[in-house]
């Protein structure tokens, strides 16, 4: 009888095949084959539309998404802060920052030079009469498991909102108002250098109150900002053709939209995906560049919500506590 031999598949082809499977299946493969444990599964290309949930106790507690990075989502409620990987079910709790002022902006990102995840808190107390610009910049290192204040950082920024942040090019960006000169700016924190810097908005944006009506995003490969004009019933898209170069701001789109629409991202063919919270249209929506509604996916209820771009991964946190790790049922 002729002896059959197993077909040899190159390592690169195995990885290409496995990346098309759901993340949950990849977890099972890593459990049964030592060879799979050596493969770095950054992401899976399989789309699973089924919802994933995380129990946080009180169902009526307000929860905000603080950011998404490398498969992890940072969640903040009125009493807790978590890092959660929906693909694996891993979650870990983050302690509150020692110094927490009234006006605050959180951010979440990855410091590639130190292989460390950071939660960033930029907070300002705008109501202290004797020191109207009392401010703190603190970072929580997942690797060190502690908060650290960046000393000597003073900044007169207020506002921004929970949905007005963007992780781009190794920095966390916020839309804020510089209250000492009453001008709207982009504030950014470099995760590797651990320094704060300021970027100007397009010259056409220089009117007070822009952060409440604008959103940061990425259009194609460019850093961008969306601005709602309620008077004209339009949304404008400005892109920065060269990062950090103010003169490279270019108005790219003007879309006729009178609804309350928060853009999240753009597709490869130029359609715009975002969150709508208008009466009768509460959920995720997709428009083309002419403002025509292409898709609508309603949320399960009408309570306030957050939305963020998310990429599946099997990554774990540096020095994570194994008892916090639990596969999804």
Automatic annotation (TrEMBL):
Pfam families in the cross-refs: F-box (PF00646), FBA_1 (PF07734)
InterPro entries: F-box-assoc_dom_typ1, F-box-assoc_interact_dom, F-box-like_dom_sf, F-box_dom, F-box_domain, Gal_Oxase/kelch_b-propeller
F-box associated beta-propeller type domain ranges (all copies): 68-258
Domain (F-box) ranges: 6-39
Domain of life: Eukaryota
Name by which UniProt lists this protein: Uncharacterized protein
Entry-linked PANTHER family: OS02G0783600 PROTEIN, OS12G0618150 PROTEIN
Signal sequence range: none
NCBIfam families: F_box_assoc_1 (TIGR01640)
């Amino acid at each position: 009888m002729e002896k059959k031999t197993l077909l040899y598949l190159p390592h690169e082809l195995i990885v290409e095949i496995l990346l098309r499977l759901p993340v949950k299946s990849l977890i099972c493969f890593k459990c049964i084959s030592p060879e799979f444990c050596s493969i770095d599964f950054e992401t899976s290309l399989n789309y699973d539309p089924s919802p994933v949930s995380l129990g946080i106790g009180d169902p009526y507690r307000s929860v905000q998404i603080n950011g998404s990075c490398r498969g992890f989502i940072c969640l903040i409620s009125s009493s807790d802060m978590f890092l959660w990987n929906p693909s694996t079910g891993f979650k870990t709790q983050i302690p509150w920052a020692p110094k927490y002022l009234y006006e605050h902006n959180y951010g979440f990102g990855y410091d590639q030079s130190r292989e460390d995840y950071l939660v960033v808190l930029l907070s300002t107390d705008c109501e202290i009469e004797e020191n109207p610009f009392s401010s703190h910049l603190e970072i929580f290192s997942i690797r060190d498991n502690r908060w650290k204040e960046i000393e000597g950082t003073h900044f007169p920024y207020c506002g921004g909102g929970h949905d007005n942040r963007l992780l781009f090019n190794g920095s966390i960006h916020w839309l804020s108002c510089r209250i000492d000169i009453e001008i709207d700016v982009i504030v950014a924190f470099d995760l590797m250098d651990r320094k704060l810097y300021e970027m100007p908005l397009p010259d056409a944006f220089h009117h007070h109150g822009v952060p409440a009506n604008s959103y940061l995003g990425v259009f194609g490969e460019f850093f961008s900002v969306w601005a709602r004009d309620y008077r004209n019933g339009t949304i404008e898209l400005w892109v920065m053709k060269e990062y950090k170069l103010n003169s490279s701001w270019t108005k790219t789109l003007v879309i006729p939209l009178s609804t309350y629409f928060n853009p999240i991202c753009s597709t490869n063919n130029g359609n715009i995906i975002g969150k709508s919270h208008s009466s009768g249209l509460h959920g995720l929506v997709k428009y083309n560049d002419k403002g025509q509604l292409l898709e609508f996916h309603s949320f399960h209820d009408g309570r306030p919500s957050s939305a963020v771009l998310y990429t599946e991964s099997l990554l774990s946190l540096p020095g994570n506590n194994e008892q916090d790790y639990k596969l999804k049922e």
